[in-house]
Amino acid sequence: MSPRKSKTAASPVPRVADEIQQTRPFRSSAQEALLALILTSDRVLARTATELARVADITPQQYNVLRILRGAGPEGLPTLAIADRMIERTPGITRLLDRLERKGWIERERLADDRRQVLCRATKTALKLLAKLDPLMDELDDLPGRELNGAETKQLIALLDRVRAAFA
Amino acid sequence: MSPRKSKTAASPVPRVADEIQQTRPFRSSAQEALLALILTSDRVLARTATELARVADITPQQYNVLRILRGAGPEGLPTLAIADRMIERTPGITRLLDRLERKGWIERERLADDRRQVLCRATKTALKLLAKLDPLMDELDDLPGRELNGAETKQLIALLDRVRAAFA
DNA sequence: GGATTTTACTTGACTAGTCAATCATTGTCG
DNA sequence: CGACAATGATTGACTAGTCAAGTAAAATCC
User: Which of these, A2, A15, A57, A159, has the minimum number of CB atoms within 10 Å of its CB?
Assistant: First the structure.
């Protein structure tokens, strides 16, 4: 992983070295791959955030939580069970849920049979919002499929899996 | 991009679906690829942050800035020129530099001929710290090369470049 | 059955990212 | 030259991530 960043680029598929004000060459292809990985993930997340912000006052994290709660159905999920299904770790989840509650997108209730747990449920407002956002997010999810064919996509997944394993 | 996350896994190279408490299958391979991308980038960054924190009181962003300043040499760089070489955008850079200055790793000076610009330079302390961190970071940079061969690495870079282009 | 441990959160103190607004200094143009 | 626009940097108000510490309610163990 090396520093430095993008600005503009000319070619149809800008390569990593062009995205960066790169003075020296990369020490190795492996290093270039890591930078490509991070730049790409960053770009995908930024695009997602932009699209979500354009149509609703919601961040990707908040959207994630609502999707998880929709998947959980009307019984809802306790706080830490939500955290387990997200990329990041625990303590942030409480404050994230606070914001969602303030916006009227979730309801929380302390469980009667285990008063340590706090059950969270998506509200009807949230479900309506999600339904509105679904087509947009599906479209973004399918963008790689417009650029890569089936075999290439599977190849990419396999390569990423191996890189991830190397960093475990 | 779909929600949900990891916890533990058994197989040698855990696949994306296993990293997640996945109930339903993915809508498409493209969607699975995006999730793999984000999980992998996240893992790489987390590992980097952990290693840096283990040997010095420094974050990846702070390390990035110091590398950029080392590359710029003794003349230093103005604030926004640093921001241009990083992944994120402008306003955060001022506060990041504030922290680096507090730690004695950079010096700032308003330029005489253009008093709008603030020139930043890495201190000797920072350069010594970087020299100490270099082997560690080089090792991390080369991890993908232990898992993938040359052709696979180039393939990965090419695929990532195309995905990134799709999200431009 | 009362102390101890574990579980499920919660809070506080940081670092860092975003956007909008602001400020001083320069540049430009009529 | 003087109004006005552009540039470089900074600040304020948020969202969010991390770690360490704390609280309250189970669960477990003599």
Answer: A57
What CATH number is associated with residue B34?
A: 1.10.10.10
How many domains does chain B fold into? 1
Residue pointed to by tokens 């010594």: B128
Q: Is A35 on the interface with B (CB under 8 A)?
A: no
Q: Which residues contact A115 (CB under 8 A, 6 or more apart)?
A: none
For the stretch B47-98, pLDDT in tens is 999 999 999 999 999 999 999 999 999 999 999 999 999 877 778 999 999 9
Distance from CA(B94) to C1'(D26), angstroms, rounded: 48
List C-alpha distances in Å: B97 to A122, B19, B78, B88, B107.
41, 36, 11, 14, 9
- In the structure, how far is the CA atom of residue A65 from the C1' atom of nucleotide D15, in angstroms? 14
Residue B7 lies in a domain: no
